[in-house]
């Protein structure tokens, strides 16, 4: 008769399998020995037409053509986009994440939360160009006399290394 409960051995086996499946370059438990050379300066490009109206009211726009600077130490990444310091990691397969926050000025400045997640593609052949493709997420807020003003953007991006 099956009761629908896992045995202790079954739970241990599942936990072990899940742990082994998630280990790899760029995770918190296993250092990366041969991570992709994602570091460099990239120019941001967006296929989406624009930003929502509530973002326009906050003076927010997409960082089209703006530089994204990335440095790498092992699997750890550090970056800067539009003055926002970013941190994250890269996997052996080229998947990467970067995220950061820039607090607004105390006198009512806009707080900026940015994150990028995607894949690094190395240059192919002589003269090839490395690129990043993924999702750009921006959340912006500013205090006001009434309710805080907020907006969010989630759009696909690509970036080509200079």
Question: Which features would summarize this protein structure in a list?
Answer:
about 160 residues, mainly beta, 8-stranded antiparallel beta barrel, 8 strands, about 45% strand, elongated
Description:
With 162 residues, the chain is mainly β. The chain contains two helices and eight strands. It has helices spanning 8-22, 53-57, and strands at residues 40-46, 67-73, 76-81, 84-90, 95-102, 111-121, 131-142, 149-161. The chain has an eight-stranded antiparallel β-barrel with strand order 1-2-3-4-5-6-7-8. The longest helix has 15 residues, at 8-22. It starts with 7 loop residues before the first helix and ends with a strand. Mean pLDDT is 82; it is low at 1-30.
In which range does the helix fraction lie?
A: 10-25%
Q: Would you identify the regions where 5 or more consecutive residues have pLDDT less than 50? A: 1-30
Largest sheet entry? 8 strands, antiparallel, barrel
Distance between the termini: 64 Å
Structural class of the secondary structure composition? mainly beta
Oligomer: single chain
Residue-averaged pLDDT: 82
Number of DSSP E strands: 8
Radius of gyration: 20 Å
- How many H/I helices? 2
Strand percentage:
35-45%
Name the strands of the widest sheet in spatial order: 1-2-3-4-5-6-7-8
Topology:
Blueprint: H1 8-22, E1 40-46, H2 53-57, E2 67-73, E3 76-81, E4 84-90, E5 95-102, E6 111-121, E7 131-142, E8 149-161
Antiparallel strand pairs: 1-2, 1-8, 2-3, 3-4, 4-5, 5-6, 6-7, 7-8
């Amino acid at each position: 008769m099956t009761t629908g409960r896992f045995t202790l051995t079954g739970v241990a086996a599942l936990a072990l399998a899940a742990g082994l499946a998630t280990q790899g370059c760029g995770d918190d438990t296993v250092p990366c020995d041969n991570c992709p050379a994602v570091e460099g300066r990239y120019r941001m490009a967006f296929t989406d037409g624009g930003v929502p109206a509530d973002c326009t009211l906050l003076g927010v726009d997409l960082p089209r053509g703006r530089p994204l600077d990335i440095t790498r130490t092992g699997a750890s990444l550090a970056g800067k986009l539009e003055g926002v310091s970013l941190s994250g990691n890269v996997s052996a397969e080229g998947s990467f994440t970067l995220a950061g926050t820039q607090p607004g000025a105390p006198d009512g400045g806009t707080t900026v939360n940015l994150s990028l997640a995607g894949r690094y593609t190395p240059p192919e052949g002589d003269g090839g160009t490395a690129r990043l493709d993924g999702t750009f997420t921006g959340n912006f807020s500013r205090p006001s006399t009434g309710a805080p003003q907020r907006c969010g953007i989630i759009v696909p991006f690509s970036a080509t290394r200079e």
